[in-house]
Amino acid sequence: MTEQPGTTAGTGHDEAIHDAVDEARHEIVRVGTSLFARGYVHASAGNISAKAGDHHLITPTDAALGFLEPGRLALVDARGEQIAGDRASKTLTLHRRICSADPTARFVIHTHSTHLVALTLAGVWSQADVLPPLTPYYVMKVGHVPLIPYHRPGDPRVADLVTARIAAHAASRTPLKAVLLDRLGPVVWGPDAATALAVLEELEETARLWLLTHRRPEPLPSHALDELRSTFDAAW
């Protein structure tokens, strides 16, 4: 690439990182405000991160997602060392490992959404699929969601369990977009904020439906799932 007069390759790279970080700051704050306003998060529960070039930006530990300040978000470099902002969330390792395991993952959201945490307390459909394929949009927009056994918040062993699940599903061509942490809630991811939000919203609403109907409805039949695969390339 031809350098512009008066610039260096390093300067251009630094400017690109700066722009990506600045955009990520605003997206994280926007998403946090939206989640809080709609009751998906409460108090200081949950965290949000975005990949910006080879850096990561993540909400600080114990931050209230509805009242984030852009300049206080934690900025972490490619080596995982924090270089700006308040102390990073204790789930930083999990967020970074998800983005490494899934090259399409650039925005990660973890909430303690009420109905999904309640689902882990009441009993999930199965360890491999916390919810049955109840609706076509759940199948198309969310897909398989495994349960990750309980570990304390921030336990680095969770990252090993989640990335192993990501790898297994990638091998079976049913890529994951989310997992459910027992008693702690969902972790969802996507290439951008809008995609990750859509997964979270569909996942939480399906859990709500499942619990409201006392877990009685039958899953979609196999022929319906086949139709969703063939028509919409659903990964189920």
Automatic annotation (TrEMBL):
- Which Enzyme Commission number(s) are on file for it? 4.1.1.104
Record protein name field: Ribulose-5-phosphate 4-epimerase/fuculose-1-phosphate aldolase
Give TM segment ranges.
none
Q: Which residues form the Class II aldolase/adducin N-terminal domain?
A: 26-211
- The reply to whether Translocase figures as a keyword in the UniProt entry is no
State the UniProt keywords alphabetically: Lyase, Metal-binding
| Record's keyword annotation contains Phosphoprotein | no
Enzyme class comes to: lyase
Under the heading Pfam families, the entry gives: Aldolase_II
Name any one GO molecular function.
lyase activity
| Source organism of this protein record | Streptomyces africanus
The signal sequence is: none
